[in-house]
Amino acid sequence: MFSLRFAAHSEVGRVRKNNQDAGYASPTMLLVTDGMGGAAAGDLASAVASTEAARSDHRAADGEEMLERIAGMMARANAKLTDLIDEDLQLDGMGTTFCGALFNGEQFGLAHIGDSRGYLLRDGELTQVTHDHSWVQSLIDEGKITPAQAAVHPHRSLILKVLNGQNQFDPDYELIDAELGDRLLFCSDGLSGLIDDDTIAELLATEDLDEAAAQLAQAANDNGGHDNITVIIGEVTEQDDELDAVEGVLVGSATEVKIPRTGQLAMERGGTDKGAPYPKPEPDNSPEHDATEVARYAPEDHKRRWPGLLALILAIALVFGGGAWGLYAYGKSRYFVGADDGYVAVYNGLPGGFLGIDMSTLVERTDIPVADLPRFFRRQVEQTIAVQSTEAAKGTTTELRVLAERCVEVRRERQKPKPTITVSPTPRPTGTPGPGLPLHPTASPSVQEGNLGITATPTATEEADPEAC
């Protein structure tokens, strides 16, 4: 049997205005949760997940029980997110990663969803023990880009799976046998996205765990610190009753955000509960930041919540009456970016119609042709992109404009004629083709195609790239 020493560190970083990361560390558990959603309360989502883990942290007897326990933690955290979103629809869109492990003295029972990472340092060798659920990782898995290309990919922060209150979520689970001297690191992408594995290995080997955590965070800040940074480290040691009795510690948003009780947010909208609701974070007026956060989570199955909510509102209207006003009020609080007559446009309301009534109104039609956008974003606009406000919509259209202008320039470059190759005449040996026939009948026709303006077929990598034009 072994024991676990641990260190936990979480900070805002140099750019963000609030900490949407959380973490938890104890003699029996290590965990990082990285919230997302911009104004839609990423800090609340991460706090919910880490707090639920801390509340349910108990030593398990064996590996199977550890995996069952940590799966239960994730399910309960996800159910809490569902309840909060149902009570306050402005929270729809929040989500969080969950990356951590339980420890029973012999094994680690690991659970992972999202792009936070787990690393194992054993005998001086660093191994990543989690697999990112991200867009660029899927491209790496398919052989379409290399890890080096992924590190600088413009969409490296786009993730495919998180805990977000939806019924369907698919984490990874694994058992890892512990060895004396092992160091396990769990971190948010504010660390792993800014420093390379060699640096992580070097700093993680620092003798004092608190110093190791501080140096890792400092290295991320030295490389820009543009995201929240959370570092949780555990070291396997000889069994020690004192270490086993150390209290667990929460860090990050879990120490800063008050999680509303079930029903509290609903009461705040008209009930008598006097408890303070979830405090909205200080708004960030940067369109780039807000657009990035809104676009950070892109699930593979683009299911929306609003059809179910519409059905619920309709049912209430049929039973109690007055549902039309509730539906109207809900629609007025929603915005989305879509297409209008071939141009990118901003709408207030809900996509589609209800009983033959259009559920949205046009707020603004931009001068950005949908056809100018990269293929990936063209599809997103045609399927509509949900945003939280007109300010968020402005940030999204600004980003789309940049992408469209880039694509127009790329296409213009492709259509430029290629230089024609001029071949000087040479004497023909007896029996060679006569005048008017090509001197090189097997030569590639690429030059002729270039003169005709024919462009090359996009490669598989271009098709996979959201910015492919």
TrEMBL record:
SMART domains for the chain: PP2C_SIG, PP2Cc
Coiled-coil intervals, chain numbering: none
Signal peptide bounds: none
Domain PPM-type phosphatase: 5-236
Chain spans, region Disordered: 264-290, 412-469
Xref: CDD domains: PP2Cc
Biased composition (Basic and acidic residues): 281-290
Entry's transmembrane regions: 306-328
KW Manganese (keyword) present: no
Keywords per UniProt: Membrane, Transmembrane, Transmembrane helix
A Pfam entry, by short name: PP2C_2
Compositional bias per record (Pro residues), positions renumbered to this chain: 426-438
UniProt keyword Cell wall biogenesis/degradation present: no
Name this protein carries in UniProt: PPM-type phosphatase domain-containing protein
Lineage: Bacteria, Bacillati, Actinomycetota, Actinomycetes, Propionibacteriales
